[in-house]
Amino acid sequence: MEIRDTQALLFDHSTDCILTPGSPEELMQFGKLQAEFNQQFEKFFPDNLASKTIVVIPSLTLDAEVLSKIDGAMYYEERLLCLLMLLRMPRAHVIYISSMPIDPVIIDYYLHLLPGITGFHARERLTLLSCNDASNIPLTLKVLQRYRLVERIKRSIPPGHVVHMACFNTTDAERTLAVRLGMPIYGCDPVLSYIGTKSGSRHAFLKAGVPMPPGVEDLKNTEEIIHAVVALKEMYPHQQKVLLKLNDGFSGDGNAIIRYPSLPDKASLETWMHQNLHKVIIPVANGMDAKQFLEKFHQMGGIVEAFVEGKVKCSPSVQCRINPMGAVDVISTHDQELTGEHAQVFAGAHFPANAEYRNEIARLGMQVALELRDRGVTGRFSIDFVSVKEGTNWKHYAIEINLRKGGTTHPFLMMQFLTNGNYNAVTGLFETANKQSRYYYASDNVQRNSYKGLTAQDLIDIAMFHGLHFDGATQKGVMFHMIGALSQYGKMGMVCIGESAEEAYLFYTKTIEILDAETAI
Questions:
Q1: 201 by DSSP, 3-state: which?
Q2: Which of 42, 62, 294, 353 gives 358 a disulfide partner, CB atoms 3.0 to 4.6 angstroms apart?
Q3: Residue 258 gets which letter from DSSP?
């Protein structure tokens, strides 16, 4: 029986019973799988020689309309190809699922970088499966629609292996697939997904005692938006603009700006907002107008938040991990690079964050992480901040929690896998196995019209000819990702690793110069 949507029935052949997605029976089965994962984590994760299989589901299970505004959204599935580096463990198997087949040149590119393992040995332990479906529905739903593909995944797991799923984010759909496959997920239980919304984030920040911008959460309709916008102006008369944020926005594309008009009093502002709201909302997402934004806001709810002003302003983030045993770690800090007229869209990140505040935001991130642990959260997540310099000090405002892997996850994992190093929580720096520091600049949004038509083979040939490729001996260089989007969209990602922040960014600018020259007409 095939599943056509998330409300369809799920047939579990192992128990010969029908499980309805979201039903008490499915929730109970998922709970059992997750409880077993705790034991698996404690016994098998520390053992690099253990026989284990990781099923990678790189689905961006997000709102399809918001996601459709992102060029080449399907190719974001390639960001988790960094998990192929797990094949450096000689008894590990990886099963990687994608919407469309991934170019073998790209797979070879990743396997070539494996330290201490031949490409052939790794390829024998890698299974690539595809839905052959380029539609814009999330990958997890595509898999659930294909009963035979689900069975093929099960058959691809070697006998005697412990197994778990690794996902970009964990929603009800991933839970259904986990139960269907009979394996746990290393990630947050979807019943806790509210914590990762814009409204849920604000509640968590309040409980953790972490500063955040003035705002109002759990808004559901136009009337509540207007009331919140007016109330913020009344409480903070000097506020010039506010942000509207969809609860489940992605990469800043779920945000919109409202500028306050020059009006004499609150009453006239409220009247003016009722008359002009559709005219003054400026959505960040390309191709989305105010009407579409408000329709989406009514569907998923959201917040109104003061726009934080500052002459010197940064957007750092802290990446954390809570393992199934409850251990909490800060595993990286970044300074995010935001683009667009109002600097709302994530474009790239520098690792580590500014030395002036990296330890302070790590401390604030730990406060939030401890609160999330107490609520039952597991897996990787990040906390985004807006930081403003006031004199010689910095003031930090927490703005959102991303209960998923994000734009700063795969670059950090890539550097960690390539160098066999780790983040030093005391210094806030990354140390390779031989105790050398490494920095990087990463971007998911390297895009030029002139790059359209470049194939994966073309890109790798250019990189090799110009010496841009990551060098395992020096543990420096450039690693490309999202290469599949290059030919159609002229878009890809890069991780540029150097001995200093300056060298890392120099690798980036040098690569852009070379690509521009190679594609000049």
A1: helix
A2: 353
A3: E
Pick the range with the lowest mean pLDDT from 7-11, 37-41, 159-163, 211-215: 7-11
Q: What is the pLDDT of residues 117-173, one digit of tens each?
A: 898 999 999 999 999 999 889 999 999 999 999 999 999 999 999 999 999 999 999
pLDDT of 16 higher than 60: no
Q: Please name every residue paired with 476 in a beta bridge, in sequence order, or none if there are none.
A: 471
Both structure tokens of 497 = 């690793």
Give the list of residues 6+ apart from residue 411 with CB closer than 8 angstroms, or none. Answer: 349, 351, 440, 442, 495
Of 313 and 264, more confident: 313
Residue 180 and residue 12 in contact, taking contact as beta carbons nearer than 8 Å: yes
CB 468 within 8 A of CB 507: yes
* The pLDDT value given to residue 426: 92
**CATH architecture of structural domain 313-519:** 2-Layer Sandwich (3.30)
H or E element, residue 332: strand 328-339
Average pLDDT over residues 509-521: 94
First to last CA, the chain: 53
Phi, psi of 358 (to 5 degrees): -60, -40
What is the tens place of the pLDDT at every residue in 75-127? 999 999 999 999 999 999 999 999 999 999 999 999 998 888 898 999 999 99
The model carries a pTM of 0.90
CA distance 220 to 300: 7
Give the Cβ contact number of residue 264 at 10 Å: 7
Give the relative orientation of helices 266-280 and 222-235 as an angle to the nearest 10 degrees: 130
Question: Which residue spans within 345-436 are E strands per DSSP?
Answer: 345-351, 379-390, 393-402, 422-424, 429-431
Task: List, in sequence order, the alpha helices (H) in 13-81.
Answer: 24-44, 64-67
Domain chopping of the chain, boundaries: 10-186, 214-306, 313-519
